[in-house]
């Protein structure tokens, strides 16, 4: 599983929607597949997906032989789950795998975001929260392995006063289920740019910065 962390409005949803478009491209640039998008924050915008699909077909005209904008939009399946954490657990644990069995072309699952419901539903209930996060983490790992599906998660960030830095929300237990973390922050140079820092988990307690990639303009996504 790959996780993108950052403040609200930094571009996590935009990036995930872009993945939903590009997973439909043939190899080596995509997987000729469909995407399943689980929206917990009501951030998914169909009109933005439409614009991204148009841009993709314009930049890669060879795709127009087999795909239209409407085709690309229909190949992104949306599950809205913005009620409570229990519903998210039930959706991921009980409904996602059967849905993939019915739609084997799905090659990407996006959960945007994992933190939204848990941060507010389980204040002061860390044990219960961690148990349900384990259910989700174990199930997503199982699906990724058995179904050969890529998993992308978005997460919020919290400030760790002991380490004096921003860290992914939901604590260290959740991080044990994540293979790769990206911390996304706006570049101080220009407000329309995002800098991507790739962080690889070195242990359960610490992250190690290993790469700073080039800056990407939001409007080009």
Task: Give a verbal description of the structure.
This protein is α/β, with parallel strands linked by helices and 221 residues long. It has one domain: 3-Layer(aba) Sandwich (Rossmann fold). The protein has seven helices and eleven strands. The strands form two sheets. Strands 1, 2, 3, 4, 5, 8, 9, 10 and 11 form a nine-stranded mixed sheet that branches. It has a two-stranded antiparallel ribbon with strand order 6-7. A hairpin with a 5-residue loop joins strand 9 (193-201) and strand 10 (207-212). Helix 1 packs across helix 2 (46-59). The longest helix has 22 residues, at 126-147. Mean pLDDT is 85; it is low at 201-221. Its main location: nucleus. Residues 1-157 form the RecA family profile domain. It is found in: Nucleus. One of its GO terms (molecular function) is crossover junction DNA endonuclease activity. Keywords: ATP-binding, DNA damage, DNA repair, Nucleotide-binding, Nucleus.
Short key terms for the protein model shown above:
ATP binding; alpha/beta; globular; disordered C terminus; Rossmann fold; single chain; 27% strand; nine-stranded mixed sheet; two-stranded antiparallel ribbon; 11 strands; RecA_ATP-bd; nucleotide-binding; DNA damage; 221 residues
Mean pLDDT: 85
Put simply, the count of helices is 7
Q: Please give the number of β-strands.
A: 11
**What is the count of structural domains?**
1
CATH superfamily (homologous) name = P-loop containing nucleotide triphosphate hydrolases
**What's the architecture, going by CATH?**
3-Layer(aba) Sandwich
| Percentage of residues in strands | 25-35%
**What Rg is obtained from the alpha carbons, in whole angstroms?**
17 Å
CATH class: Alpha Beta
**How far apart are the termini?**
22 Å
Main sheet specs: 9 strands, mixed
